[in-house]
Amino acid sequence: MAIIITDECINCGACEPECPNNAIYEGGAEWRFADGTGVKGMFKGKNSGIEANAEDPQTPVSMDLYFIVSDKCTECVGFHDEPQCAAVCPVDCCIKDDGNVENEEELLKKKNHYTYNIEFMKLQFITILSVLAIFAFSCKSKKEGSSTTPAVDAYLPGDSQLKAIQVKFADATAATLKEGYDVYMGPCTNCHGKKNMYKHSEADWQKDVNRMAPKAKITDAQKDALWKYVLSMRLAKGTPAN
Length: 242
What we know:
2 domains
C-alpha cells in the first residue's frame, strides 16, 4: 500500500528529498506524474484514477502540510528495504495508507513503470559513451600505429652519444650529457612538449636553445649541457650537421 502523511506533520521537510519517486510535495505545491520519473504522454494514476498528460500540473493533495501522491508512491520497493519517509520522519507521521492497499508485486510493477524510461535513457547514455570511448581509442591506436617516424626519440644518452659528441667537444662527459638530458626532459618538455630533435637543423636547434634559455631560467652551464645533449643524439643517429 502507499504511505500517507498524517496531520501530526510538523513540515520539517525531512521526507521530501528521501523519496526515490518524487512522490512527496510541500503543502500547496502542484504535482505532476512526470516529476522525477520516466513517465511521458497521457498517463492514468492507478490509485486516484486521474488521467492526464504526465507534464500537466495537478491539484495539491494538501494545502498546509507535506503530502504524498499515492499514484507515485511505491513504499520504496525496488529501491530500499523500507519506506525512507517513515525512516527519517522525526514524529512518525508517515504511515501506511489503508485506503490504498497494494502488495509487493503491484508496488514493484508500479516502480518499474515509473522508472522504465529513466533506466532506458541511462542504458542509452552508457551505450553511447562506450561507443565513443571505443572510437576514440581506435583513432588513437591508428594514429600511433601509422606513424613511421616517432615524434619523440629522446632517451638517456649512452656510450655512442658520448663518443659522437667528443668528436666535436673533447671535454664533453657522460655527466654533461646526463645534465642536458635532465634539462631537456624537465623545463623544455614541460613547456613545449617533447620535440623531434632530428627534424630541425643543427642551426635551428642552437638558435632555439639560445632564445629559450632565459625564459626557462636555466644557467649557462645547463644551456651548454642541453646543447651538447641534443647534438650528441643527432650525431649518434647520423643526422648531418648543418
